[in-house]
Write a structure and sequence with these properties.
Keywords: Signal. The chain contains eleven helices and six strands. The chain is an alpha/beta fold. The protein has two domains: 118 residues, no CATH class; 150 residues, no CATH class. Helix 1 packs parallel to helix 4, helix 1 runs antiparallel to helix 5 and helix 2 packs antiparallel against helix 4. The structure holds 2-acetamido-2-deoxy-beta-D-glucopyranose (NAG) (2 copies).
Length: 313
């Protein structure tokens, strides 16, 4: 039997979409990518910052970026040929970065004193956002003369790789599909942010990549503010079964309010955890496993039976 344990990452994932419906060509996509990267950067920074002035500065920046993207560009684009449009979008991307720089220059001294990193981010990250060379890796299989290697792995001299955990906050992608052929995924859910978000992102990823994934009833999303301590998403044929275990839940929090407070108190967006907090989280996680021992054993047994049937069939 094949099974895996998934561990959470320390970043919450938020996916932001902006649309320029009439012009969704690659130039527009590129522009939106720059915008989304900037908004995500603002978002992550906001999560690390407590001072109200700094938060309001970040809100201002977000508004500036939003206004720039939302202003109606149809008229400008209409008159252009594809090359002209591409040029416009490139210019607008640079304008977005320029706006961040201008914003950072207007900050009063001391606003981000304890978070000088943000300046570093602006200086170092902005140029990277435009070039987008993160994760670019030389492909050692480029033109490798072996027919057993699929052409998609030999045709390009460079790959663009993304950390599956950063993408979805939990490394589901590595464990989906025929190659791994996983029967059971036990997924303790300790992410900050919306409950079930990692799961629905993984499901969307599976759909887009045509990988088997168990059915997720959207009804459970209504429980996101006070989830159960265990959910089982049964795999039927090729799909793995997923046992999903929210760290805070109906068993250890008496109501939505307590759940919200616990999620905030133990959010991963803080450094460092005190020893007491570490102990508390470990004990809570242990108790969750114990409380669901019967479900876990049952699903492990079921997965073994399914595997045996597959091997015999
Ligand atoms: C943008 O402006 C064009 C004309 O310039 C108009 O036809 C279009 O409806 C506008 N779009 C939005 C979303 O306002
Ligand atoms: C599950 O845990 C409970 C409480 O610790 C225990 O009584 C029970 O025997 C356990 N069940 C299995 C199948 O191990």
């Amino acid at each position: 039997m094949f099974f895996c344990f998934l561990f959470f990452y320390t970043f919450a994932v938020s996916v932001l979409f902006v649309s320029v419906p009439e012009y969704t060509d690659s130039a527009a996509e590129e522009y939106l990518r720059v915008y989304n990267a900037l908004v995500k950067l603002v978002d992550l920074t906001r999560n690390l910052i407590k001072q109200p002035t700094a938060v309001s500065d970040l809100d201002k920046l977000e508004k500036i970026l939003q206004d720039m993207v939302n202003c109606n560009k149809s008229e400008l684009l209409e008159s252009k040929d594809p090359d002209g449009r591409k040029g416009l979008f490139q210019q607008w991307s640079l304008d977005l970065l320029g706006a961040v720089e201008t914003w950072s220059e207007t900050l009063e001294d001391g606003t981000f004193t304890t978070h000088g990193q943000f300046f570093l981010l602006v200086k170092r990250v902005l140029p990277l956002i435009i070039n987008w060379e993160w994760g670019t890796t030389s492909n050692f299989l480029y033109q490798y003369p072996d027919p057993s290697v699929p052409p998609c792995l030999t045709s390009k001299d460079r790959f663009h790789l993304i950390d599956a955990g950063i993408m979805i906050n939990v490394a589901y992608p590595s464990f989906l599909g025929d190659k791994r052929d996983i029967d059971l995924i036990i997924a303790p859910e300790y992410s900050a942010g919306n409950m079930f978000e990692t799961l629905t992102l993984a499901r969307d990823y599976a759909v887009s990549m045509k990988k088997p994934f168990p059915e997720i009833d959207n009804k459970i999303l209504e429980e996101r503010d006070w989830p159960k301590n265990c959910y089982v998403f049964e795999g039927k044929a090729k799909e793995p079964t997923i046992v999903y275990l929210p760290l805070f839940n109906r068993q250890n929090c008496k109501d939505e309010e307590e759940f919200k407070a616990k999620m905030e108190e133990y959010s991963t967006f803080q450094r460092p955890f005190s020893q007491e907090k570490i102990d508390f989280v470990l004990e809570t996680a242990k108790a969750n496993m114990k409380n669901n021992n019967e479900t876990l054993l049952r699903e492990i047994n079921r997965a073994i039976h399914r595997r045996q049937n597959k091997l015999q069939g």
